[in-house]
Amino acid sequence: MARHLITSALPYINGIKHLGNLVGSQLPADLYARYLRTRGNEVMFICATDEHGTPAELAAAKTGEPVAEYCARMHGVQTELARGFGLSFDHYGRSSSQRNHALTQHFAGRLADNDYIREVSEKQVYSVDDGRFLPDRYIEGTCPNCGYDKARGDQCENCTKQLDPTDLINPHSAISGSTNLEVRETKHLYLRQSALKGEISDWIDSKKDWPILTTSIARKWLNDGDGLQDRGITRDLHWGIPVKRGQQAWPGMEGKVFYVWFDAPIEYIASTAEWADAQGKADADWRRWWRKDEGAQDVTYTQFMGKDNVPFHTLGFPATIIGSGEPWKLVDYIKSFNYLTYDGGQFSTSQGRGVFMDDALEILPADYWRWWLLSHAPESGDSEFTWDNFQQSVNKDLADVLGNFVSRITKFCRSKFGEVVPEGGEYGREETALIDTLTTRIRAYEDFMQAMEVRKAAAELRGIWVLGNEYLQGAAPWSTFKTDPEKAAMQVRLGLNLIRLYAVLSAPFIPFTSDAMLAAMQTDISDWPDDVTAALQALRVGHAFIVPEVLFAKITDEQREEWEQRFKGVRA
RNA sequence: GGGCCUGUAGCUCAAUGGUUAGAGCAGGGCGCUCAUAACGCCUUGGUUGGGGGUUCGAGUCCCUCCGGGCCUACCA
């Protein structure tokens, strides 16, 4: 039994995530975790909310809540939504946890001890009226290059010129509008990534099987310009992990916190510790997933993330781990995704554009979304969500191919034999042919799942569903019943067993429906079909079942049009 | 500006440099009547964005042009 550690990129705390966020990390990670579990592996699937940084403080200020309360509340909201989508985290932690405080401070201390930290004194813009230093992008003004009056301090969106905040004409705070800005001197810690460039570069080069998207982004950062740059890992904010050197005070760093991108990946580890705490387990129980000297040497660690997260996971976090000089587990495989776009534009949390997780669950069950998103996962390039495509795909795949298959065989059985697996008849040529084809396709499905080829796995699974309809059409029990009822019984028995088989195979994609299918078949036998012939005999003669409700109601044209209108603009 | 990704049927996508570029959906025809007007079979549909080059052979490699997207280090 292999051991698999799986992490999904941490969703940021400042609001409800949209479908693009979901499909870029949490959902495919869940697919993989569920698959590996059902294949008998020991799995630790970890996620958490990412709670620090300026946007969290501003979001809290907007609602009038203290930031700690805001984060606690939003963590609760996101936890419920994760549950609603069937995300099977072993633990959904918080980057603001005490575990993460201690670990982040520990890593900083180790990095300092190993001379991978340097102090840098720099000048930053301070907004007197806001009472805070402003990140470059929170300063607005007129672009000196093109005259655009809403240029940001890091870049002008209009002419794309890169800017320094001090370049702006009439600079003002993007938060309050205040022009009462001054440049102040402040001191920060930098992680000397440049000193680790060689090691990180060699490590990336050794990953021959990683997606091009992952390695090309990493190489770009490693080799662009002067190569990998040192990175500031502290900020002048109130909300965050106080800068400490291990458990010691860090002279000169009083009142400062670690940069959110320094502590967020460490939360993968901390969240596993939170899991142990929540389960009443010992430290050794989480450390065996992370410390190669305490049991993690045989762990396979896979990370899932959108492409925007790749630099921090290929460079920053590995630099932290390598630089610590301690035997923490480095990631073995990074599965990265492009973006899902919405009707030709971008999904946007800040602009409220697109479909958000709460809206999605309000209008349709989770499995509709899981199936569409995973079968259209943006693996080779950005992919687009349109209501038309969504309606067509879901109706065809789920309602017609799978749902209707379950419906037709259970209802036929009920009308001819009752709600019980019928007796009689033996397999003939058609049945052995079906089993051969099923076996071939299930093995292909396993390969795609193992390789995290999400779309191909979905297509293969769909193909397996189709085999059921093909079989029924050829076998035609409604015909054979008239001349050879025993043969019809055998055909129906096989059909009913296919439902159970499909429930098991489909569980990683559509777990709720899978449960409903098993419930209808009144069985909890969910072993993986290593032997298809045996798997198709799980429901024995005389076993009672229930004809289930329609598994997937179709999306009507009226619904599609209504949703198209409803989600057209921006939401408040 | 620089870098990376991408462009294949009406749509969404496949195709270690190697038969005649394949699937699903949509469209057309036939069949079936168990089923959510569902299912099955057959079928139409391509100058692989344009142009050059390398090769016995290019969707695939090289050059160039055009279109789309992303990143470019203080948002996360």
TrEMBL record:
NCBIfam families: metG (TIGR00398). Monomer. GO terms for molecular function: ATP binding; metal ion binding; methionine-tRNA ligase activity. GO terms for cellular component: aminoacyl-tRNA synthetase multienzyme complex; cytosol. A motif ('HIGH' region) lies at residues 11-21. Signal peptide: none annotated. It holds the Pfam family tRNA-synt_1g. Residues 421-571 form the Methionyl-tRNA synthetase anticodon-binding domain. It catalyses: tRNA(Met) + L-methionine + ATP = L-methionyl-tRNA(Met) + AMP + diphosphate. Residues 4-409 form the Methionyl/Leucyl tRNA synthetase domain. Its cofactor is Zn(2+). It is found in: Cytoplasm. Binds 1 zinc ion per subunit. Zn(2+) binds at residues 143, 146, 156, 159. Is required not only for elongation of protein synthesis but also for the initiation of all mRNA translation through initiator tRNA(fMet) aminoacylation. Belongs to the class-I aminoacyl-tRNA synthetase family. MetG type 1 subfamily. This is Methionine--tRNA ligase. ATP binds at residue 349. The gene is metG. GO terms for biological process: methionyl-tRNA aminoacylation. Keywords: Aminoacyl-tRNA synthetase, ATP-binding, Cytoplasm, Ligase, Metal-binding, Nucleotide-binding, Protein biosynthesis, Zinc. Its EC number is 6.1.1.10. A motif ('KMSKS' region) lies at residues 346-350. It comes from Paracoccus amoyensis. HAMAP family: Met_tRNA_synth_type1.
